[in-house]
Amino acid sequence: MKPLFYIAAAAMVAVALALLLLPLLRHGRQDGRSRGVFALMLAIALVVPLGTVFLYGKIGTPSTLNGVPQQAQTITDVNQALDELRAHLAAQPNDAQGWLLLAQADMEMHQPDQARDAFEHVLKIRPNDTTAMVGWAEADSTARPDHLIDGRARDLLEQSVKLEPNNQRGLWLLGISDFQQGRYADAASTWRILQPQLQPGSSVAQAVAQQIALADSRAASTSPGGTAPDQPAQESGLQVDISLAPALQTKLATGDTLFVYARAENGPPMPLAVTRLDASKLPTTVTLTDAMSMTPSMKLSSASRVIVGARVSHSGNAMPQPGDLEGDVGAVDVHSASPIHIVIDKVHK
């Protein structure tokens, strides 16, 4: 297993170097930049992934604890290289390739907020850079607690695939955005554009085929009068009754959006099921089901207990904002047959 991992890692490094460093060197020679900057970039491109492999290989058994000083040194070297790259960019803020390298390094270091900022710098210099567009959208989704791909992130993805119709990462993320918003037919259609670009029989191609099948199934089951093949006409789920506390009635405004959600009691904050309604319909009743999951791999039925809540958003944004109205009932059994009653009685601060 480990040899395969190392081979894959080496291949990824080689591809990264080919895609990133060669253009950097070519443009650098044209612009007359010093070789020192590119040596620094080379160090980052090598040290980040190889340092990750090193740590992965070393942290596994108690007998490897003697290697901790070496691991700390590797991390220090990476951080020093990144600091030097940031200093270079402070002196030369129009170096788009440098910002792109920093953004990708920040993503490798699990710092999506910083990566999004670096991608933003690239887009200010090169507005039509599809790599930065897709990178910004991915970093934004990673940084968000709910991992939604909407707003500017979706706009950038749509623009990227218009400029580069075969952008595989852009097509994949755009399909996820469609799926999250319940546009299952659109998700399947988007992924079908991606499918022919993948190596037949590869694990990636198989995974995409599975997601297309799932999106088709959901599209069939949610269409008027439609029922997915080999699926019951109605999915079981959690029935939720939502009302607004009388004291907050005056805070409800025209155009407000009601979000009703369920998330795992012990797990990531991303909802396992969520639905969006016009808040003027309060009080109302909804049934949360697997069809309302935001990603194919995280469904309501995948958890045993979930926290069920509701929120009135004045902005229509899925992320909580100060002034939003909210309420929840805490954790309940995901197979509960009794209606769940939620009173929206708090103001988010």
Describe the structure.
By secondary structure, the chain is of the alpha+beta class. The protein has 2 domains: 2-215, Alpha Horseshoe (Serine Threonine Protein Phosphatase 5, Tetratricopeptide repeat); 238-347. It contains 10 helices and 8 strands. The chain has helices spanning 2-31, 35-58, 68-91, 96-108, 112-125, 130-143, 152-163, 168-180, 184-194, 203-222, and strands at residues 238-244, 257-264, 273-278, 284-288, 305-313, 325-333, 340-344, 346-347. It has a 5-stranded antiparallel sheet, with no helix packed on it. A hairpin with an 8-residue loop joins strand 2 (257-264) and strand 3 (273-278). Helix 3 runs antiparallel to helix 4 (96-108). It is globular. The model is unreliable at 1-9, 15-20, 50-68 and 227-235 (pLDDT under 50).
